[in-house]
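Build the 3D complex.
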Amino acid sequence: MQNPSGNLEVSVWRGNGAGGGYSAYLVPVRDNQTILDVVTWIQHRLEPTLSYRFACRVGMCGSCAMMVNGKPRWTCRTHVQRVIDGNSLKIAPLRNLPVIKDLATDMSEFFDKWLKAEGIFHPTSTRHEAIAPIKPDEPAQIAASAAIECINCAICYAACDVVALNPDYLGPAALNRAWTLINDQRDGARTARLAAVSAGGGCFNCHSQQGCATFCPNELNPTESIAGLKRFAAVAALRGEI
Amino acid sequence: MLGVRLYLAQRISALIMAPLVLGHLVVMIYATRDGLSASEILSRTQGSLFWGLSYGLFVAAVAVHAAIGLRVIVAEYVRLPGLALDAFTWSVGGVLLAMGARAVAAVVL
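Done.
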């Protein structure tokens, strides 16, 4: 799995929004080495101006996603030996997002689309009222719980071909977030949210290709969430609610 | 690009087309295996309200379904802007409806 010098052959995309290209580096192999370890080693030892984004290093914050050998990965929890192609690694900024510099993308549109999908909790009571009892075994809560563990890493957004082809499409993460709120019995904006996710760039543009579900590091299934939104929104439209 | 109304129109037109396509295939196989000639088939379809409605409904469903399906493909791969996309959708639907109506009229009237 390594060349005679004992090094990994790593290509890292360097540039900015105007363009760029791959630079080649040799990085020593280490046991249990992650992709983030490789990028950090390059920045510390070879390329101090290399820009990339990370925070927690334990798969919770969703900051460090990059394209690794053409596929979106959370780099802090992706071992080199699991994704290496021969002895080569090709590391690039996340697909479907504008590049700021090197491996750091501008995630503004990704989060703006959460707002467009009404991915905001609209409470129906105040802090002065009793806490709503939530039964974990109710069908709506089971559906919400199945989709709730999103860490906003944008890996699904990078994996989605519909996002690549249709810039207005809200994307799997925003729609998955809307689905968790639709199923939250404490939320009071169901109709407004169904209207938001039914608009031009909404859930009906999903082709159910399941790139999101294939690459989600937390093994969520946004395609299933979007299918749920399609069902609810179609019924609401037939009833004249949206 | 594809909102709830277009989505519902495409799904409902698919629901209409599915049994009509199966019916058409069954009738076609029956007619050809039985050795019916074109004039014998026309004698059964001409003036028939049932065949007129059946194929008329099929043509209408095809026009709606195909126009929306092509709209999605053109929007994603050609990136037509809103008004041009609407014009394309209506044009495809209109042409298919006109061609289909002409064919139905030819065998029913």
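Chain A has two domains: 7-105, 108-238.
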